[in-house]
Automatic annotation (TrEMBL):
This is Reverse transcriptase domain-containing protein. It comes from Mytilus coruscus (Sea mussel). It comes from the Eukaryota.
Length: 320
């Protein structure tokens, strides 16, 4: 057996110290005299433009080197993993230290110690993030909270607010386009356009993101209600939109999503689609007076996100 002990340390190029001019303490009279003489010499010379430009630059650099003092600049925060936010915390820590040192008050010293711990934690986190990016290049990619996949926006908190916002905006935009361009068409043509262009967007993958919060349900239903008024050409406040939808034969979208979930569960139970059923589908092996062998065992859930996901929610509807 071979045992390897490795010590992985990130390599970085430390910036070299550089010289900078201290313009607060120059010899202005000498600089002025040198510049006047330099301009006179360049003007009276018969050289080319390129040579004059080169001589001007060299003359200015020579004058500055002779008449302006310099100092060596060492970059204080040269570590590559120190971001601007971390540097601000470090500077804040130094200010609190100086204040606590001057005043000697316990509250100032307490603030310094508290901020010192927070700064050390931020530096450690920044260092480990830097090391992880070196060891795993995939971590260099920008982290996002929402990401589209097959037309559905998946969020890191497993909520569907971002997806609902996007397709509701798209459906509203399409409905507005239809209302502007098909306002003089007959009812059948308007209904066909709505079903093809708008409702198809609202129904897409409804078995996955079917919302349970009433605010999301109402927002989606409001799009179909506006479409019903448009198709029936009835915008009166006293008119019943429910009657219009019943006349058109439109079911509420929440009911359509419920039916879609039940259809998909039927296909899963009967092996008509390639969706694994382990840990989700289990028939009731002990029927009673109020249940039968076709019913499925309910899934326990500790969070609302899982409780209202596809399998737990649809199994309840299946057993009704």
């Amino acid at each position: 057996m071979i045992v390897l002990d490795t010590d992985l340390k990130p390599q970085y190029n430390k910036p070299k110290p550089r010289e900078i001019y201290v313009y607060m303490k120059p010899k202005w009279e000498e600089i002025k005299a040198d510049i006047i003489k330099l301009i006179s010499d360049i003007t009276n010379s018969n050289t080319s433009v390129e040579d004059k430009w080169t001589n001007l630059k060299i003359g200015i650099e020579t004058t500055l080197n002779l008449n302006v003092p310099k100092k060596i600049k060492h970059k204080r925060h040269s570590l590559p993993w120190l971001s601007n936010n971390v540097k601000k915390k470090i500077r804040r820590k130094h200010k609190l230290f100086q204040k606590a040192k001057q005043t000697g008050k316990p509250e100032d010293r307490g603030k310094f110690k508290q901020h010192k711990r927070a700064t050390q934690k931020a530096v450690r986190q920044a260092h480990w993030q830097y090391v992880n990016k070196i060891l795993d290049p995939a971590l260099e990619e920008e982290q996002v909270s929402d990401n589209p996949y097959l037309g559905v926006i998946i969020s890191d908190n497993l909520k569907w607010s971002s997806h609902i916002n996007k397709f509701c905006n798209k459906a509203n935009s399409t409905l507005g386009f239809i209302r502007r361009n098909l306002k003089h068409c007959n009812k059948h043509f308007k209904e066909t356009a709505y079903i093809s262009l708008v409702r198809s967007v609202l129904d897409y993958s409804g078995t996955v993101w079917d919302p349970y919060q009433q605010k999301d349900i109402n927002r989606i239903e409001s799009i179909q209600r506006r479409a019903a008024r448009f198709v029936c050409k009835d915008y009166r406040r006293t008119s019943s939109v429910a009657s219009m939808m019943k006349h058109l034969g439109w079911k509420p979208l929440v009911e359509r999503r419920r039916e879609q979930r039940l259809v998909l569960l039927y296909k899963i139970v009967n092996d008509l689609v390639a969706i694994p059923t382990e840990h989700h589908i289990e028939f009731n092996t002990r029927p009673s007076r109020t249940s039968n062998v076709k019913q499925l065992k309910l899934l326990s859930a500790n969070t609302d996100i899982y409780k209202h996901s596809f399998f737990p929610e649809t199994i309840i509807d299946w057993n009704l």
